[in-house]
Amino acid sequence: MNKQMIKDSLILFIITLAAGLLLGGVYAITKMPIAAAQEEKKQTAYQTVFSDAADFMEMEEADLEAAAAVLSQGGYEKDVIQEVKLARDAGGNSLGYVMTVVSKEAYGGELQIAMGIRMDGTVNGISFLSLSETMGLGMEAKNPAFYEQFSGKNVDRFAYTKSGASAEHEIDALSGATITSNAVTNAVNAGICYAESLGLEHGEQGGGADE
Predict the structure, then answer these.
(1) Is the pTM of this model over 0.85?
(2) Calpha distance 204→201 (Å, rounded)
(3) Residue 178 CA from chain centroid, whole number
(4) What percent of the chain has pLDDT over 90?
(5) CB 179 within 8 A of CB 165
(6) Which of 15, 30, 68, 146 has its CA 20 to 30 A from that of 76?
(7) How many angstroms separate the CA atoms of 204 and 207, rounded?
(8) Phi/psi-derived region of residue 96, left when phi > 0, alpha when psi is between -120 and 50, beta in every other case
């Protein structure tokens, strides 16, 4: 190996090392602000789906590994409970649960929702934390006309339909976006399934699966 090759290799090594250190520094600087922004977004979503809650308390009994087992047993193996908190009023009384649920069935890979569910099993509402579907199709899930169909409903499980919702538990699917409709519906059902394991009392039962 001649001197020029050694020199070129040394220069390349120095450039690579400097770039690595620079990227590492940028990551270290931006990591905390990004995490803080994500946490703020999540807390805002929790307040959206449980607007009458004064605070959201950590739950020791909310074992996420146990949650995975509960969802698997319920048939929701492609859904993940990432976080669960207890929604409380100003007097410290329990109102229900807020949780972050991820579906791995979305057309774009994954979607993430925040959902609130009261102690009687009523779904307060859902809010999207992440959604990367096709514009004009799956992204229409962010349209209130779709996601508000889950709000204020007390059913055993939801089911989407392509022929027009006619029952309390039915959700009108997005036109041309059955995969997204299925992913969102299953994510909500997974949340209900796990909330039931924590303790719920349904006032009304819904129907079975559609298709």
Answers:
(1) no
(2) 9
(3) 18
(4) 64
(5) no
(6) 146
(7) 10
(8) left
